[in-house]
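User: Show me a protein chain along with its predicted structure.
Assistant: Here is one chain, sequence first, then structure tokens.
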Amino acid sequence: MKIILRQDFDILGKAGDIVSVKDGYARNYLIPKLIGMPSTAANMKRLEEEQKLKQRRRDKDKIQAEGLAKEMESISITASVTVGEEDKVFGSVTAQAIADLLKEKGYDIDKRKIILEEPIKALGVYNVGIKLHPDVESKIRVWVVKE
């Protein structure tokens, strides 16, 4: 039986591929779990329409992310940390701390989208990357100052 994959499936292929599988596998597993659908002309047209809608959604999300990226380029946030002798920082500035500071400015950014190779452990000015979309990345300036 030939089926059209509705989603990526490691064993068989990517979404939109037409693959040939045994009848029982298709009827009892792939079709009920919405992984695939029978390969008919109507289902091919349906799949094309779904892919067009997904592409429009991705394009819209990318445009919004690009606008937000331009806006965020001008953002500068200040993280106040406690320091000891010789300006040694107690603790560090993490992605969660940066996300909290951005939330105070009105930007709701998930901490997993903030690109920090390791937490900031010294005073200074840092450019921190933020991945807003798979294709769009922005940088903000983080000032780490003593209290």
